[in-house]
Amino acid sequence: MGTRVGRHTVKIEKPVHIVSTASYVGKKEGEGPIKDYFDYIIDDMMFGEKSWEKAESKFFKKAFETALEKSGKKFEDIDYMLAGDLLNQCGGSTFGLRDFKIPFFGIYGACSTFGEAISLGSMLMDGGFAENILCGAGSHFCSAEKQFRFPLELGTQRPPTATWTVTGAGAVVLSTEKKGPRVTYVTTGKIIDMGIKDAANMGAAMAGAACDVLSAHFNETGRKPDYYDVIATGDLGNVGKALVKKYLAEENIVFNNNLTDCGIEIFDGEKQDTHCGGSGCACSAVTFSGYFYNLLMNKKIKNILLVPTGALMNTDISQQGETIPSIAHAVAIEME
């Protein structure tokens, strides 16, 4: 079984390997700099459905089916599914996966959900409760804007600090089968509140959570930032990434050129007018499942510390003048 190496971190002792991934994305994501790494690019934002919400569920269904098919496993081989999204009551994942008939944990960590899913799945397997787990996360630009900000029909001007919610879904199959990169450490973050109230400045709201979990990971594992070929936060964009470097430098945690952000990787901010970059549950899910997993499998990198970040905002509570708490989870994934 796994070993606790601090208040936040668990060392995964049993083999937990990511044996397959799948990534479905929308048109804008399919025009970005990592477009060649996605499994499918869907030009129709409605994905042939009657609403954005139904389209979001279809992204889930297709990504999970594809990840399972690529793993060579069947539905009956999967012990659990773990998934979540940004819709109320996790409607995107629930309705997308309802026909799979697999024991299901619906989870919510806002845009950190992909990291939460891999973390919990890895610990379930390390505890001996499963041999194969299907997990992932997704989001949709149109449904997220409608729920958290302004309906698109208003044509509201987006400020420079805004990020663009990624449309798509990413899925991975975790297995005891010794194939593909291995999950070695899981560092669980705390709820951190930076006092930010601006829903269009997610990078600033989430930077503190990313710093907290990164600091905990390095302190508890004894690793230095340069141990990893890539350290990829989830949804901070340009503003959040700069703040992370600034805050952690004050703790004498300094990065070389290995610090990046999934929201920066997935879009070309200047050519695609996404302002600070990408965000949403799908941001880290599809960027890892497509781009970073490919780099690992082709031995272009040997390890990655994936740190999806989430703003734990709520439309009703935000309207009552509350701040935006945040969370981040770090997962060390390494080729053996």
Description:
The protein has 336 residues and is α/β, with parallel strands linked by helices. 33% of the residues lie in helices and 24% in strands. The protein is built from ten helices and 17 strands. Strands 1, 2, 10, 11, 12, 13, 15, 16 and 17 form a nine-stranded mixed β-sheet that branches. A six-stranded mixed β-sheet has the order 4-3-9-7-5-6, with helices on both faces. α6 (237-249) links the parallel β12 (230-233) and β13 (259-261). α5 crosses α6. The two termini are 19 Å apart. The mean pLDDT is 90.
List the helices and strands and how they pair.
Layout: E1 3-4, E2 9-11, E3 17-26, E4 40-42, H1 52-71, E5 80-84, H2 91-97, E6 104-106, H3 113-126, E7 132-139, H4 141-148, E8 164-165, E9 168-175, E10 182-188, E11 192-193, H5 202-221, E12 230-233, H6 237-249, E13 259-261, H7 262-265, H8 269-272, E14 278-279, H9 281-297, E15 303-307, E16 309-311, H10 315-319, E17 325-334
Parallel strand pairs: 3-4, 5-6, 5-7, 8-14, 12-13, 12-15
Antiparallel strand pairs: 1-2, 2-10, 3-9, 7-9, 10-17, 11-17, 15-17, 16-17
Helix pairs in contact: 1-2, 5-6
